[in-house]
Amino acid sequence: MGDNVRTIVAIASSTGGPRALQTLVSALPGDLGVPVLIVQHMPVGFTEALAKRLDSISDIKVVEATHGEPVVPNKVYLCRGGKHMNVDYYGGRHVIRYSDEGTREGVKPCANYMYESLMNCQYNLVVCAVLTGMGADGTEGIGNLIRHKKVFVIAQNAESCAVFGMPKSAIKAGIVDKELTLSLIANEITMKVRQK
């Protein structure tokens, strides 16, 4: 039958991210209708516990993504610490693929790889959210993705960030469509993916 979901959500977060993700993911509906990818800067061994915590407080299913796993709607895929998460399309479906390149933007996982992997996928719309964190991860990847896909970018505002680095970088690059306080981002994502 193949993969007929044409929108995906992709989120990048770093310092202050686990707390921000608890607010955002727990506010997403269980029937969101699209998959959600998350790259949170974390070392090996910590992401499984975060995925379980998010799953326990959310209506939508949350997992630590596994290599080769199909990407399906109504599921949140948290990148494993210490690996880069990509999405590949083959055999009529999208699947998770981990890669082991070195650090990028000084981090591993790096959200830029995730965003750039979506350039070659079948999604028509990628809804991106850049949350609290140091540095500039996400900016380059989303900038490259915009040249290939329809993209809608949300940045967490300064007032609700623990560190206003990554969102500020995206805003300065001119790639952000909406700058919102954390508590409003889940609703904006939901409205955007359900627009017909």
What would you note in describing this structure?
With 196 residues, the chain is an alpha/beta fold. The strands form two sheets. It has a seven-stranded parallel sheet with strand order 3-4-2-1-7-8-9, sandwiched between helices. It has a two-stranded antiparallel sheet with strand order 5-6. The mean pLDDT is 96. It starts with 6 loop residues before the first strand and ends with a helix. It is 28% helix and 26% strand. The radius of gyration is 15 Å and the shape is globular.
Sheet with the most strands, sense and barrel status: 7 strands, parallel
Q: Give the total of beta strands.
A: 9
List low-pLDDT spans: none
Q: Report the span from N to C terminus.
A: 22 Å
Which whole number gives the mean pLDDT? 96
Cα-atom radius of gyration: 15 Å
Structural class: alpha/beta
Relative helix content: 25-40%
Number of helices: 6
Reading side by side through the largest sheet, how are the strands ordered?
A: 3-4-2-1-7-8-9
- Name the overall outline: globular
- Listing every helix as H and every strand as E from the N terminus to the C terminus, the arrangement reads EHEHEEEEHEHEHEH
Q: Strand-residue fraction?
A: 25-35%
Features:
single chain, about 200 residues, alpha/beta, seven-stranded parallel β-sheet, two-stranded antiparallel sheet, globular
Secondary structure elements and their pairing?
Blueprint: E1 7-13, H1 17-25, E2 36-40, H2 47-57, E3 61-64, E4 75-78, E5 84-90, E6 93-99, H3 111-117, E7 125-130, H4 139-146, E8 150-156, H5 166-172, E9 178-180, H6 182-194
Parallel strand pairs: 1-2, 1-7, 2-4, 3-4, 7-8, 8-9
Antiparallel strand pairs: 5-6
Helix pairs in contact: 1-2, 1-6, 3-4
